[in-house]
């Protein structure tokens, strides 16, 4: 009898035990101070809102005047699996008496709750259910990341991977790592050690891809070997929408990223100079069978990688504007090449029609589809030249022609410098097999103006040098140009001046009176320069990035005393603290000069040591004379001494540079006016 009772009890237990109750991740309707994105299963919490987000279990039935409820008696735990987060999270299970409705809606007064607080990084949240409570009201995940600084409860995100009511065994399985995988981003690491084409390699130490020959490539082999099929099969990336390459440095040249599928198809995207990212849209019908991904470029191209990954569409970065011009039709007609290599059906495009063709230009050939053809071939030659163009060398078969699958309706190649030069001089000759060509278009890269920021050495690293390519600006649309200089030490109160100059010359430069940048604290800055080509406005902004040490200033004499106002004669500091320079071999006449700092007009001194003061005048009465200029950096006092040509400039110069000036009593002085002695001779200091 006891055995029969035991067996019945076991059967009853089996009947009352249910599989875990999955909670809906397409919507987390209950919440405050937060939002939920179902596409990425991510909760976003507002700062200082102590936000929560979760599920409600009570359905208000107005006719009956009572609450419906979920029977949770078969489950032991509420379990939520999350991706490791920087937030401190709390899972709360709330119960209700099932009768009381709050004043503002059909929510019921809570009678009790259970909570589980988790430190950042925890991936499984769980609360033991209280079966003595009458009704399960709601379950929510709260951001409880308290901190002393403002905001006390910072904003952040938690990605929900799985959520259910279940047994203790279900909980242990979740704690052991049986959770829904993250499908928003999948990083694929470094590309292969070698690619195709001599010299195409990846340097893991610098994360740099180097392309050997024109449009050689390197990439990631993602296919997997299938023993049953005895062949490689494509990898399943159906959870993702895009493939992304992020570059650690803006690209210096154009390139292309291609995703190839098991069915022979591919998805690709072209990126251009100054690109920071390349994004490929995966083909929806083929992304479950990805064979490989690779990057190509012209010979010698270098691409420095920061990351490579598959991701969902909402996380894909935006591609920059394509800097290519509008395609121009350079030939249109109907050239049927037939199936017997009928060279008489070939056609040519005159060099005059290929205006502006250059390295990076694209030629696209359009032809009619012929379902009967097993393959099509096309041969491209420069008119009256031997051999094929070399830009599409990777596409050529053993007979030197490009072969395309049946069903294709176009063929596109990017020209290298050699081919572009040939076409510009000789034009294009086209022949083919089993196709009817209808159109040829040419797309040339947009050629933007070159703008350079020129200014003082302390700001720009060179002294008003329009030819300094380190200060060339970049643009993606030919309208807004920018230049970012990092690690620039700037001094409080100094007006640093600069201009934007066109084509590395002063012929066209803005603004006419110089733009200025000042900072309110002596420090190290990242400076961003901006030039608007539509309004010719030039500006700069500075963001502090570090503390500045002691600033060593360079003082110089500038003016007609040097022949023009573009040349500085830099001064040296003597033992007495004075800065001195000697301007030699001056012809008789009148000259002007000022003292400026760090080769920049942002800080300069004129007559009487006045900041931005008037020019200092000096008169030389004899050819071959010299002028010794001294400057006191503390008092800003400026003095000069004229040494006549008959006084032996070479012997005087050394003494003058040491600031050796004496009064009539034989005492060495810093500054003086009137009659003084230097190098054994008498001079008048004005």
How would you describe this structure to a colleague?
This protein has 686 residues and is mainly beta. The strands form 13 sheets. Strands 1, 3, 4, 8, 11 and 13 form a 6-stranded antiparallel sheet that branches. Strands 14, 15, 16, 20, 23 and 25 form a 6-stranded antiparallel sheet that branches. A 5-stranded antiparallel sheet has the order 2-5-12-9-10, with no helix packed on it. Residues 1-18, 60-68, 178-182, 648-658 and 663-667 have low confidence and may be disordered.
Proportion of strand residues = over 45%
Alpha plus pi helix count: 5
User: Count the strands?
Assistant: 50
Shape: flat
Instruction: Give the % helix.
Output: under 10%
Q: Could you tell me the radius of gyration in angstroms?
A: 39 Å
Biggest β-sheet description: 6 strands, antiparallel
Estimated structural class: mainly beta
The average pLDDT is 81
Uncertain parts: 1-18, 60-68, 178-182, 648-658, 663-667
* Distance between the amino and carboxyl termini: 129 Å
Keywords:
45% strand; disordered N terminus; 686 residues; flat; mainly beta; 6-stranded antiparallel beta sheet; 7% helix; 5 helices; 50 strands
Topology (elements, then pairings):
Blueprint lengths: L1 H15 L4 E2 L7 E3 L1 E4 L4 E4 L6 E5 L2 E3 L4 E3 L8 E6 L6 E13 L6 E11 L5 E5 L6 E9 L12 E11 L1 H8 L9 E3 L13 E3 L4 E3 L5 E6 L2 E3 L4 E3 L8 E6 L7 E7 L4 E6 L5 E5 L8 E8 L4 E10 L16 E9 L10 E3 L12 E6 L7 E8 L19 E4 L4 E5 L2 H10 L1 E6 L2 E8 L7 E5 L1 H4 L19 E11 L5 E7 L6 E9 L5 E10 L4 E11 L7 E5 L4 E7 L1 E2 L5 E8 L2 E9 L2 E6 L10 E5 L4 E7 L6 E6 L5 H9 L16 E5 L2 E5 L1
Antiparallel strand pairs: 1-13, 2-5, 3-4, 4-13, 5-12, 6-7, 8-11, 8-13, 9-10, 9-12, 14-25, 15-16, 16-25, 17-24, 18-19, 20-23, 20-25, 21-22, 21-24, 26-33, 27-32, 28-31, 28-33, 29-30, 29-32, 34-36, 35-38, 36-37, 38-39, 40-41, 40-44, 42-43, 43-47, 44-45, 44-46, 47-48, 49-50
């Amino acid at each position: 009898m006891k055995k029969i009772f035991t067996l019945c009890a076991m059967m009853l237990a089996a009947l009352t035990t249910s599989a875990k109750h999955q909670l809906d991740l397409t919507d987390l309707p209950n919440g405050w101070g937060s939002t939920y994105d179902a596409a990425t299963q991510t909760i976003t919490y507002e700062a200082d809102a102590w936000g929560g987000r979760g599920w409600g279990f009570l359905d208000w039935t107005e006719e009956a005047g009572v609450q419906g409820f979920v029977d949770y008696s078969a489950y032991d735990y509420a379990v939520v699996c999350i991706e490791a987060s920087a937030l401190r999270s709390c899972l709360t299970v709330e119960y209700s008496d099932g009768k009381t409705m709050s004043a503002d809606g059909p929510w019921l007064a809570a009678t009790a709750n259970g909570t589980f607080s988790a430190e950042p990084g925890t991936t499984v949240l769980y609360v033991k259910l209280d079966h003595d409570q009458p009704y399960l009201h709601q379950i929510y995940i709260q951001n409880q990341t308290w901190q002393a600084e403002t905001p006390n409860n910072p904003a952040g995100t938690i990605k929900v991977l799985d959520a259910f009511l279940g047994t203790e065994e279900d909980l242990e399985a979740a704690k052991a790592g049986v959770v829904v995988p993250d499908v928003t981003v999948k990083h694929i690491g470094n590309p292969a050690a070698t690619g195709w084409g001599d010299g195409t390699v990846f340097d893991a130490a610098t994360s740099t891809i180097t392309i050997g020959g024109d449009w050689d490539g390197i990439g990631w082999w993602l296919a997997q070997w299938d023993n049953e099929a005895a062949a490689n099969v494509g990898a399943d990336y159906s959870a993702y929408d895009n493939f992304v390459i992020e570059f650690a440095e803006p690209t210096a040249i154009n390139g292309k990223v291609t995703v190839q599928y098991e069915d022979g198809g591919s998805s690709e995207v072209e990126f251009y100079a100054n690109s920071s990212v390349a994004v490929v849209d995966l083909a929806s019908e083929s992304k479950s069978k990805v064979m490989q991904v690779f990057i190509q470029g012209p010979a010698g191209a270098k691409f420095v990688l920061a990351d490579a990954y598959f991701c969902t569409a909402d996380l894909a970065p935006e591609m920059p504007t394509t800097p290519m011009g509008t395609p121009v039709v350079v030939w249109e007609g109907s050239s049927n090449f037939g199936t017997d290599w009928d060279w008489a059906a070939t056609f040519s495009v005159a060099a005059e029609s290929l205006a502006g063709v250059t390295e990076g230009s694209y030629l696209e050939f359009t032809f009619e589809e012929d379902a009967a053809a097993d393959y099509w071939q096309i041969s491209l030659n420069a008119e009256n030249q031997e051999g094929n163009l070399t830009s599409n060398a990777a596409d050529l078969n053993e007979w030197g022609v490009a072969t395309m699958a049946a069903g294709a309706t176009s063929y596109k190649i990017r020209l290298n410098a050699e081919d572009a030069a040939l076409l510009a001089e000789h034009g294009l000759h086209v022949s083919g097999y089993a196709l009817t060509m209808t159109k040829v278009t040419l797309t040339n890269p947009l050629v933007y103006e070159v703008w350079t920021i020129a200014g003082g050495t302390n700001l720009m690293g060179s002294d008003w040098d329009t030819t300094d390519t380190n200060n060339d600006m970049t643009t993606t649309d030919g309208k807004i140009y920018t230049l970012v200089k990092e690690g620039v030490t700037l001094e409080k109160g100094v007006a640093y001046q600069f201009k934007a100059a066109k084509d590395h010359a002063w012929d066209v430069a803005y603004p006419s009176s110089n733009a200025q940048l000042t900072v309110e604290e002596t420090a190290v800055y990242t400076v961003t320069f901006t030039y608007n080509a539509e309004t010719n406005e030039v500006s700069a902004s500075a963001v502090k990035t570090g503390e500045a040490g002691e600033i060593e200033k360079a003082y110089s004499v500038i003016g007609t005393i040097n022949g023009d106002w573009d040349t500085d004669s830099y001064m040296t500091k003597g033992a007495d603290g004075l800065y001195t320079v000697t301007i030699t071999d001056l012809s008789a006449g009148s000259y002007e000069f000022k003292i400026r700092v760090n080769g920049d007009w942002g800080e300069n001194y004129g007559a009487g040591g006045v900041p931005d003061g008037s020019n200092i005048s000096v008169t030389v009465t004899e050819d071959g004379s010299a002028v010794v200029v001294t400057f006191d950096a503390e008092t800003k006092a400026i003095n000069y001494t004229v040494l006549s040509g008959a006084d032996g400039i070479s012997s005087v110069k050394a003494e003058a540079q040491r600031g050796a000036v004496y009064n009539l009593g034989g005492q060495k002085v810093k500054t003086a006016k009137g009659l003084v002695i230097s190098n054994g001779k008498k001079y008048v200091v004005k």
